[in-house]
Amino acid sequence: MIAAVSLGFFGSIFALVGMKCTKVGGSDQSKAKIACLAGMIFILSGLCSMTGCSLYANRITSEFFDPAFIAQK
């Protein structure tokens, strides 16, 4: 989840630089490449987030159905 938040932050920065309305980033062609990179970083961030949530849900369900688990259910 920390990796997802970090990648989301950097994706937002790249997306801001890749916008056509900003003066930073160079020509329109380089801005398009930066915006595409931002999109790929957002997808990677989503995959990291989905992986973290899935692993946590797997742990919760395995503890719930484990008869040897003594803590409160």
Automatic annotation (TrEMBL):
Q: Which InterPro entries match?
A: Claudin, PMP22/EMP/MP20/Claudin
Q: Where in the cell is it found?
A: Cell junction, Tight junction; Cell membrane
What keywords sit in the KW lines? Cell junction, Cell membrane, Membrane, Tight junction, Transmembrane, Transmembrane helix
For this UniProt entry, what's an example GO CC term?
bicellular tight junction
What GO molecular function terms would the record report?
Answer: structural molecule activity
Please state which protein family the record places this protein in: Belongs to the claudin family.
Transmembrane segment boundaries: 6-22, 34-57
What is the designated name of this protein? Claudin 10
Q: Report the Pfam families cross-referenced here.
A: PMP22_Claudin
Stated membrane topology is:
Multi-pass membrane protein
Coarsely, its chief localization is other
